[in-house]
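Can't paste images in this forum, so I'm doing it all in text. The chain is below; anyone willing to post the predicted structure tokens underneath?
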Amino acid sequence: MSKPQLPVHSSQATIKPNPFGVSETELRNRPEKYLGYRVFSRWTGSTEAFFIVRQFSTLNARIILSLQDEIGLLEQQLDTLENKFARPGTGDYDNSSLRKDFQTDRKELLDKIRLALEKYNRFVNEYYTLQSHPAAPINDVKSVKSWFEAYPGAISEEETLFISRDDLISVRPQPKSPLRNLIESIVFKIGYFPNIFRRLPQDPLLHHDLTLWYEDDKIELVASLVIGVLGLIVFAAPFWGLEFMQSQKQKLGLITGVVILFYCIVSVATTARPFESLGAAAAYAAVLMVFLTVSTANSSSTSGTFTFVNSTAGNFTLS
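Text version of the structure:
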């Protein structure tokens, strides 16, 4: 089998002979014995990006609806008892006190309702928390698929089908800007990965010479530096341009273009939402307009000089 094309965030994992003296050939011939969930779990837990599981949205909704129906039936039973105890001619029932309620049927039913509600509320709250996890990034899903393709049989084929479902989530999501993903894509595609970004694998069974293990914090630092340099250039350059431009239309055109460019950079280089990017661009536009107004006012004041034509006659020309 040819080696799969490795996606961003991952490279093919090659296993060293284990401490029991099993050779690499034996490992590849019997991956179900020597690799299995032992190594796959370590690899999955090596970084947040690879810890991907299913959300089971349909099943969770089904269970919630089932619990809801169970509570609804208990509620109907309680209503039936309450109507019975409040109906005229059915006995002298005291419904004014919980302490003096000697109706065991009602007490037992309330206990059942309490347990059912605890179960229902806990399940709904846990599912609400689960829903807050974002969908697993496509590149991370491809990384897990590549591991399965690199070691066929290490995990039972039936138990690898989960990675092809459409309800995958990241257990510990790690937001990345489009620029960060672009930097990683370029690095992995050109096949050059500086040693400064590499790290040793957490698992001694994983061969770090043939496996690409990287320091996520260092890549994030490079992305931040790129963003910072671009931001400073876009922020400072227009002020010099406005200073040397004479036409008002040229200045407005420069401001419009720079604001649009600034919005695009914020959208691509950060994880900001669209309205947050728009707010940042609006604030930047306001700064440029203030600078333009002040610059125009200063230019007007410096151009107003007096030239005396005839001091004797007291005639003068204002230019």
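The beta strands are 52-54, 168-170, 306-310, 315-318. Residues 2 and 290 are 62 Å apart (CA to CA).
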